[in-house]
Design brief:
Blueprint lengths: L10 E5 L2 E4 L1 H7 E6 L4 E6 L3 H13 L1 E4 L2 E4 L32 E3 L18 H10 L4 E3 L8 E4 L1
Antiparallel strand pairs: 1-2, 3-4, 5-6, 7-9, 8-9
Length: about 160
Amino acid sequence: MKKGIYGQFHYRELGGGRIEIDPKWVAENIVTVKLPGVNRNVQVHRLARDKFIQAFTTIANSTVTVNGRKMSLLSQVKTFDGTWVPRHVNWNANNGLSNHSWGIAVDINAASHFRYVNPGTEPNDPNLILWQKAFQPAGFKWGNSYSDSMHYELY
């Protein structure tokens, strides 16, 4: 499987949409980083590390005004739901591999954001705000275009 600059790897199916990636590729490409603000150690692709740090440094150090009230951008992160998870899209082996398999994606506020966010009618949605303030400037795409507004991934 080839994924541009993030490399290719061999894998085997584990069932339930999960995969096991060649351990050599994992050792050479997946690193652990502590994300500012959420103060979590997560695994990401070594080439994505700086972009994750950039986005989460912005989240940790910025404020946003919602409904006339100034608050921390970090307050918009209700749940942090995963980065490197080797699997198929939607845990379905009939789908292609998820970008989580390369460690170049993150899910935020998953329980309430497996849906489309309408920027025109939901301007104060936390995931829209996170997209605009932190993830887009760091070079991430947003999964909102395919009704997965919890999902941010690198190109």
